């Protein structure tokens, strides 16, 4: 594992790199609003990527690196994320297909930046469709705007809602809530299988 500090327009971010032996792609994962990169579902997805021969970068946003708990505004999160993507691509992942992903808030960032960052696919762990109890405040447009293959892993009793499948989008509904802790084995197995499938043309 290698830990890098990467300058962004909103302060330093951190990336924890887990390199596969023969990396055929890179998966960049962002954390949830109040959590860090050690969340159980992010760890499960990282293990799955390694098994699929994919490098992983767990990206810590500048507000977390600075020790703040409250997340930065969406625009700042997106700008910082794209700065990290650019730095990692230049130094580590040159010419490799990039998969963007994350849990909750990190999944939203991955969706919003997928086109500009030229991601070949997006992995959403516990995508927050709406704030709990407020279905009218939907964030589905962020998910619907993604034009590349997308896997959403969602807890069946997630208070943040359940997205539906779409043309490019697969949904895996698991027992449990927003944490996805109840069935990490299935999270891992599904992510590994999905990465293997969507990256086949690039392999």
TrEMBL record:
Domain KANL3/Tex30 alpha/beta hydrolase-like stretches: 24-165
Superkingdom to which the source organism belongs: Bacteria
Alphabetized Pfam families for the sequence: Abhydrolase_11
Annotated signal peptide: none
Gene3D superfamilies the record matches: alpha/beta hydrolase
Residue intervals passing through the bilayer: none
SUPFAM superfamilies: alpha/beta-Hydrolases (SSF53474)
PANTHER family, per the entry: TESTIS DEVELOPMENT PROTEIN PRTD, TESTIS-EXPRESSED PROTEIN 30
The protein's name: KANL3/Tex30 alpha/beta hydrolase-like domain-containing protein
């Amino acid at each position: 594992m290698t830990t890098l500090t990467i300058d962004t327009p909103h302060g330093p971010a951190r990336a924890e790199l887990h390199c596969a032996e023969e990396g055929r792609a890179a998966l960049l994962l962002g954390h949830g609003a109040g959590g860090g990169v050690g969340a159980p579902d992010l760890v499960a997805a990282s293990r799955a990527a390694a098994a699929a021969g994919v490098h992983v970068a767990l990206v810590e946003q500048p507000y977390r690196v600075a020790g703040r708990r409250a997340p930065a505004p969406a625009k700042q999160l997106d700008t910082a994320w794209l700065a990290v993507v650019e730095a990692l691509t230049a130094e580590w992942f040159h010419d490799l297909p990039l998969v963007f992903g994350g849990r909750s808030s990190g999944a939203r960032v991955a969706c919003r930046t997928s086109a500009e960052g030229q991601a070949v696919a997006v992995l959403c762990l516990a995508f927050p469709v709406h704030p709990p109890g407020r279905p009218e405040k939907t964030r589905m447009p962020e998910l619907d705007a993604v034009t590349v293959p997308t896997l959403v892993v969602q807890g069946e009793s997630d208070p943040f809602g359940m997205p539906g499948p779409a043309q490019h989008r697969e949904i895996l509904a698991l027992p449990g809530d927003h944490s996805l802790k109840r069935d990490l084995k299935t999270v891992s197995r599904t992510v590994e299988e999905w990465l293997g499938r969507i990256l086949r043309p690039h392999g």
